[in-house]
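Weekly structure sync, notes
Attendees: PL (lead), two postdocs, one rotation student
Agenda item 3: pending single-chain targets
PL asked that the sequence for the first pending target be pasted directly into the notes so everyone works from the same version. It is reproduced below exactly as submitted, 629 residues in total.
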Amino acid sequence: MAVAVAAVVLGSGLLALVISYSAEAGADAGAALDRTGPAVAWGLPIAKLVFNASAACTVGALALALVALRPKERAFRLALDLAGYSAAAWTAAASVMSFLTFHSLANLPLFSDGSGGALVSFLADVDAGRRGALTILIAAAVTCLCFAASSQRSVALTVVLALAGLFPLALNSHAAGGGSHPDSTVTVVMHMGAAAVWLGGLAAVVILRRALNPDRVATVVRRYSTLALGAFVALAVTGFLAAWAGMGSLEGLASPYGTIVAAKCVAFVVLGLIGALHRGWVIRRLDANPGGGALTFTVLAVAELAVMGAASGMAAALARTPPPAVTRTGFSLETPKIPSLMDSFISWKPDPLWTLFCGAAVFLYLAGTRRLRQQGRSWPPYRSILWVLGMAVLFTVTSGGLRVLQESLISAHVLTQMALMAVVPLLLVPASPLTLASQVIPRRTDGTVGGAEVLRLGLRPFYAATAAPYVPAAGLAAVLAVLYYTPLLEYSSRTQLGYEAMSVLALLSGCLFASSLAGSSGARQASSLAAKLLSIGGTAVLYAIHGWALAQQPDQQPDSRRQEWLITVQQPWNHSVLAAPEPAGAVMWIVAAATLGVAALTVVLKARRTAMARHGKGRAIDRARELVR
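Predicted structure, written out during the meeting:
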């Protein structure tokens, strides 16, 4: 069965690759200065296709073993073996890609004189070569871990490492950005990860179906279908953003790059329809008649794998096709744009990570409250309002005008960081999303990992960290130091990956601090109140110090950003440009004072309300005792 699935995926992928890449490959091989020949021109996209398919089968089989298969059943071990063999093929494909990439960049024919030493130098000294070597090492490590893994924790570690192996390839592609088109590295990595879970998971289900008990097939397919639905949504969002970053406008659809994108969209729609059939018809047949339903599922799944293989072939061709914004003569230099106040209102730059996160968070939260109502339980409406409002603010900060301006203005960068660290947590934490999740997500008893298990195990260290408010306060100090006194300051304004790292650190540290302030009650309320107020005061001092340091700019800025991170004012009467330091320190002081003031007031009012309730309860008990006497 594994050989048949591989033949379907790779066969349809090769067919789609030949059709979509013929013109571009002919142009590459026939170029006057090209010395690599058709072997490299065709070898690279074919190796990319095998790379995509084998990486997908690795990630998908591991994900299926983690969330759908019992550790003690035979299919679990077979899934890990499938992932191991796929990872071995992934390692081989990555090696071939590095070898062919070297010859493509060096413009050398295969196995030419002196190419061996140059290849070693390429892998050791050139960024593209080092990333290729890193991919090979990660894939090889995943291969070993797949055959050695025996528990859910080891499988989870292997999944994370396998997904990390997708990053170097994205950094080597035109998704990494350049002088004439934006960086879309995170977009492409998320797209590749979602596609891997979808394609690889389906291939694993088809291959392992006969190893499952008939009464288990419906459960495994249903759990995979949930993963596939999430992957479908992620692919839709990231695919649109990545395609738009490559084309830049609708006119790009007329280019060879745009033609392949349009064909991939057609395949995506077909896959969506097949997925709807799975969720709306096949799973019900599996529940009613496991034997007949399994045959129906297999036939439909094989058709789906063929379309997925074709989409993978087109993706391999797309990776070798220059986007319309990139010319063969090189990258054009961007003219620095003078930011204006209007840009903060009219500019938008949708972020793939936070767009998906905000949309999924609102949907899941409202779905959870609906499930509570169906169970006859209530949920405070103000919490739902706070959650939706907080997600709206988070989306606006990460995808709106601030997202654009923070690339040019240090004050906008500081405002972005403070909004994520201080403003958004004040809205999200009181919404109590973890409390809601614990009430509506059932725990699994079959040894697999579901939502409740992920929350319980993943959040355990954070619960321990928020037991005392001074620990999150110390975390805030560490995060501020990382954000402003390491290369992350520059990377977060220049690269998509750096921005995601900055935003995740800022939001996580802010939520932990806000959670610690909303924590303890009861007998320890008096001491907890003092500790919380002391923590708030220490955090105020921390922000004051960092704001003062920012006010000393440009001395506190990295050398490469001193000239760019200045307010630039265009004077219409003489067209001269004046530069003056921005009020970054004042921005931090104002936001910190407002949010810490709200936090302190909330803590005091909550402590007073708790004390009054405890006092009223004590008086009621005393009156009851008097009546008894």
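Discussion points:
- The radius of gyration is 28 Å.
- DSSP finds 24 helices and two strands in the chain.
Action: rotation student to compare against the earlier draft before next sync.
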